[in-house]
Amino acid sequence: MDNFDGRAAVITGGANGIGLATARELARRGARLMLADVDGGALDRAVDQLGAVGVVCDVTMLDDVRHLADRAFDTFGAVHVVFNNAGIAYAAPIADVTHDDWRFVIDVDLWGPIHGVEAFLPRLLEQDDPSHLLFTSSFAGLVSNMGLGPYSVAKYGVVALAEGLARELKPTGIGVSVLCPMIVDTDL
Do 80 and 1 touch, CB atoms closer than 8 A? Predict the structure, then answer.
């Protein structure tokens, strides 16, 4: 997708870090934006700064992400970019990771993108506009390292999700990309 002018983009984790930087660039290119984030204060600041629509959304909750999709399609009519970006960083030796830690990291970093696919993909398939699904994984989703057990497990899953979708969706014209950055300068 080369032209973003007037196209609608939805970004989870859109109030900070990679999500906010992407929102700024898409706004510069003329996209209409819906930002979703669990941090309502940061979301309000980002929305004000970019003239975007904001939706408080916890990506671990399928109903929240379905609500986000409803709002996006109700607001824009069609959605052209869905950036499943919301995530958390987590580092600890596997021997020190509690069950609740495992669950939280996987709920946010893997189930969040899965919920994004569940909520948006059926509608993207139905609409007659080119669209693109984008995911934030991590270099840790390609090469695991000490102290990143749960994070790597979740981020490997995101890479597998994106790769599988890219193959399945190729005949439909829906693009799929996965971002695998290393260290990112962000407040998160």
Answer: yes
Cα Rg of the chain (Å, integer): 16
Q: Is 151 a catalytic residue?
A: yes
Contacts of 140 (CB under 8 A, 6+ apart): 148, 151, 152, 155
Residue 1 has a pLDDT of 59
User: In Å, what is the CA distance from 158 to each residue of 80, 110, 127, 137, 152?
Assistant: 20, 6, 25, 6, 10
Q: Where are the beta strands (DSSP E) in the chain?
A: 8-12, 32-37, 53-56, 81-84, 132-136, 175-179
Contacts of 13 (CB under 8 A, 6+ apart): 19, 36, 37, 59, 85, 86, 87, 136
Q: CA 155, CA 138: separation in Å to the nearest integer? A: 6
Whether the CB-CB separation of 44 and 14 falls below 8 Å is answered with: no
Decide if 64 contacts 52 (C-beta within 8 A): no
Q: What is the pLDDT of residues 29-74, one digit of tens each?
A: 999 999 999 999 999 999 999 999 999 999 999 999 999 999 999 9
Report the alpha-carbon distance of residue 23 to residue 35 in Å, rounded.
8
Q: What phi-psi label fits residue 17: left (phi over 0), alpha (psi between -120 and 50 degrees) or beta?
A: left
Catalytic residue among 151, 158, 161, 162: 151
